[in-house]
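Course exercise 7: structure representation. Students receive a sequence record and must write out the corresponding structure in token form. The form below is the worked example handed out in class, using Ferritin (176 residues). Read each field label carefully; the graders check that inputs and outputs are placed in the correct fields and that the protein name is recorded exactly as given.

STUDENT ID: A-19
EXERCISE PROTEIN: Ferritin
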Amino acid sequence: MKTTLISTKIVPEFHRQIGSELEAFLQYLAIAAYFEKAALPRLAAYFSRQAEEERGHAMRFLQLLVDNDVDVAIPSVPAPEVQFRDAEHAVTLSLERELRVTEEIHSLLRLARQENDFTSETFLHWFVKEQLEEVSSVDQLLKMIQRAGNHRLLLVEDFLGRSDQMKPSKKESEGG
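STUDENT ANSWER:
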């Protein structure tokens, strides 16, 4: 007997969201490679971290389905865009992607509420907060790149290097 605490109507939408998160993962890998090739290691590292976060998001959805004894379907995803005019184009693409994912999460939350699916609703609240952070971070990065211009990206690199040094390590932030 299958035991699930989530609405059967939301399951196919969660499958689609797994695909969307994996699509973002691949896009951020492509952007990281672009910055690596351009000898901008801090921007490359930023997008490598973003890629891993997106993979982690896909895994959260997958685990929710597994925990609810639901069969998992992982959709195919289109190849990422790999040609970028410049840094601003690459980061703009990232911001557009985050805004699209935010709307997808909001749609999932609306469906969960409509279905009185409290398990999914509670699960999705984490993503609402996460998307606010993601959109804010990428928007700030885009504004810095626009201010610096494509010929002064080393200023952005310097800022990213300094902000990485100011962040507590994962161990420190967890109180360890």
